[in-house]
Design the sequence.
């Protein structure tokens, strides 16, 4: 049964449709990431869930609650933004306690201005301490935000979103301001918290690697609608369209001009030549095929290799990327193909101008729609 259910959500700004019949269902305790290019509607979907904007149409249910009928302040949804949005004059304790105090206050301005550490009840104190334990900040409870690193400030923001035990926790590009090492640390922290608390989380990011690292499922947003949703490996190795294949990581994509069948193989003609593939049911001329660069291998062309499962060409560039080398090969057809190979040592680097054979597994190539 779905815990968060969104059906046919639509939002228009200035006569431009930003979210277009978006639908998704999250199970309780699931972490789902929504990724997509800038302007595809990711943040607008979150704002609709939070009650910060009113959609033109569509349903949003959290459990059995129709959120469209509930004011934003009563929805019991936590939110973590890229900006930490901490009160600079308050301690860590006071910042995390704020949403609990705010629910019992009729004057938020006075609450912010007063500084309220002396008025925190034992119940609130217990909840604050527990939230800070979850994010490993118990030793920083009396510090002000300026005394914390960026990663620590983001953990305070996370504790503040957790402290009132939300029914849903949303994230909008939460790690964009952190450096690589801190991002990886926070990804692990969020994933561990989600598993420990069995909390339902909706995570919006433009970072595909981040989404694949932490998510139970990933949804790809295209022009305001859901282009595909599935487990990370499914989306990556079984994309359903050119857009999804090329948005989520590197992918070699080629249009099919002719099709034939021989035994268990589909024989497809592309700019690469005539090649043999499997798992190509329903493929027709005008469709496309794709293969990930890391699913290709390079073999020095000795002139003795002749195979239906290979392309032939010359290396034009190689880019060292740490654990791998990204190699561009100019094929005999005049087209390019990208291959990613392990960089075990400098002697393994393919050289520019080298004649090369690009080998592939027939089952690694997937069909793509427009």
Sequence:
């Amino acid at each position: 049964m779905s815990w968060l259910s969104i059906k046919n959500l639509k939002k228009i700004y200035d006569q431009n449709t930003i979210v277009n019949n978006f639908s998704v269902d999250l199970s309780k305790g699931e972490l789902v990431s929504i990724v997509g290019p800038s302007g595809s509607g990711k943040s607008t979907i979150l704002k609709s869930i939070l009650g910060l904007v009113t959609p033109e149409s569509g349903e949003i249910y959290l459990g059995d609650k129709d959120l469209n009928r509930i004011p934003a302040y009563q929805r019991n949804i936590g939110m973590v933004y890229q900006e930490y949005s901490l009160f600079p004059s308050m301690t860590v304790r006071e910042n995390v306690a704020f949403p609990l105090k705010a629910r019992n206050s009729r004057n938020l301005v006075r609450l912010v201005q007063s500084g309220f550490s002396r008025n925190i009840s034992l119940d609130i104190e217990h909840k604050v301490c527990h939230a800070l334990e979850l994010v490993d900040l118990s030793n920083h409870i009396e510090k002000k935000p300026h005394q914390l690193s960026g990663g620590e400030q983001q953990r305070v923001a996370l504790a503040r979103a957790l402290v009132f035990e939300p029914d849903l926790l949303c994230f909008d590009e939460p790690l964009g301001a952190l450096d690589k090492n801190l991002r990886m640390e926070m990804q692990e922290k969020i994933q561990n918290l989600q598993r420990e608390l069995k909390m339902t989380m909706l995570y919006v990011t433009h970072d595909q690697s981040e989404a694949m690292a932490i998510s139970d499922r990933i949804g790809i947003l295209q022009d305001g609608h859901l282009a595909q949703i599935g487990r990370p490996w499914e989306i990556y190795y079984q994309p359903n369209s050119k857009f999804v294949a090329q948005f989520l990581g590197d992918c070699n994509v080629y249009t099919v001009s002719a099709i034939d069948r021989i035994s268990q193989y589909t024989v497809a003609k592309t700019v690469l030549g005539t090649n043999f593939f499997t798992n190509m049911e329903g493929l027709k001329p005008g469709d496309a095929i794709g293969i990930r660069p890391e699913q290709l291998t390079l073999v020095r062309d000795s002139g003795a290799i002749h195979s239906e499962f290979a392309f032939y060409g010359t290396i034009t560039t190689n880019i060292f990327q740490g654990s791998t080398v990204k190699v561009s090969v100019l094929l005999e057809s005049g087209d390019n193909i990208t291959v990613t190979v392990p960089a075990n040592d400098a002697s393994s680097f393919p050289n520019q101008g080298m004649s090369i054979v690009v080998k592939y597994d027939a089952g690694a190539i997937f069909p793509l729609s427009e």
Notes: The radius of gyration is 25 Å.
